Automatic annotation (TrEMBL):
SMART domains per record: RHOD (SM00450)
Transmembrane domains' residue ranges: none
Rhodanese domain ranges (all copies): 97-220
Protein name: Rhodanese domain-containing protein
């Protein structure tokens, strides 16, 4: 790991010059870099509550869109007022390694089990929905039909005990760095902790997907950037993250997924030929 940036210690300590703060607050919105992820999220986080997507029709979607817009405004205010401080993945890696700050991983279990930062603490703000009642099964079926089979995305349930579980592990004056896969769940989790009385909070902008492998000491079988993908698109290597990985690793990486595609085509062809052969065979076996 290279030497940390000279400005990092000041930022982590919360030091911010009046001139810089004035510039941040007075600078027009379109001149400031986008901090929050722009990609749509399937869950809407409110003050201590969450509403999952996927039901209720157009009115439900409209309501969720309004709640998401309101949440974004709250998060931008918390960041702008330095109530939640922002770190890049590299800065977060330096800070976690060189200080006694806590790294709190709030990702669901299906992402955490693929790759995690060594020494981090795991408390999910959302986790994979394991309910087997009619409502839970209908949500899972709907999620699968609208693209879960392709992307591998799972139906999530909000962890109502997230704040309580965090309070059981850390005091409210602890320095906590929050991270998720893309940065959205972690800023929502940071808001909940701030409202619960935690005051020294850091948010990793872009999440682990924006991190390079050298930024953190990784454990697990997958690179950080690939921990959030799944489904058919992952199996065949058709995600943006895998394309970027292939550009780094070369033809050996590409050949693996090319082999899978060829194998799938051969299997589909064999099943088609087999189905055509079984029909006449069954007719011959029928008694005349």
């Amino acid at each position: 790991m290279a030497a940390p940036p000279l400005s990092l210690a000041r930022r982590v300590a919360g030091a911010s010059s009046p001139a810089a703060a004035a510039h941040s607050s007075s600078c027009p919105r379109y001149f400031r870099p986008r901090l929050l992820p722009s990609k749509r999220w399937s869950g809407v986080v409110k003050m201590g509550a969450a509403v999952g997507g996927g039901q209720g029709g157009e009115e439900e979607e409209t309501r969720q869109a309004k709640e998401m817009a309101a949440a974004r405004r709250r998060w931008e205010t918390l960041i702008r007022e330095q109530k939640i401080k922002t770190l890049t993945p590299r800065e977060a890696g330096y800070t976690f390694k060189l200080t006694d700050k806590v790294l709190l991983d709030v990702r669901p279990s299906n992402e955490r089990q693929k790759a995690w930062v060594k020494g981090s603490t795991w408390i999910p703000v959302f986790d994979v929905d394991t309910s087997s009642d009619l409502n839970g099964l209908s949500k899972k079926a709907f999620n699968f039909m609208i693209g879960g089979w392709w992307s591998g995305s799972s139906t999530m349930s909000f962890n109502k005990n997230f704040v309580q579980q965090t309070e059981e592990k850390f005091s409210k004056d602890a320095d906590i760095i929050l991270v998720c896969q893309k940065g959205l769940r972690s800023i929502a989790a940071a808001e909940q902790l701030y409202n619960a009385g935690f005051k020294i909070l850091f948010w990793v902008q872009g999440g682990l997907e924006a991190a390079e492998e050298e930024d953190f000491e990784r454990e697990g079988s997958q690179p950080f950037k690939l921990a959030g993908i799944g489904g058919v698109s992952e199996f065949f290597g058709w995600t943006d993250q895998q394309r970027a990985q292939a550009a780094k690793e070369g033809w050996g990486y590409r050949l693996l997924f090319t082999g899978r595609l060829v194998g799938a085509i051969v299997l589909a062809d064999a099943l088609f030929v087999g189905a055509q052969s079984i029909g006449p065979l069954l007719q011959q076996l029928q008694p005349h």
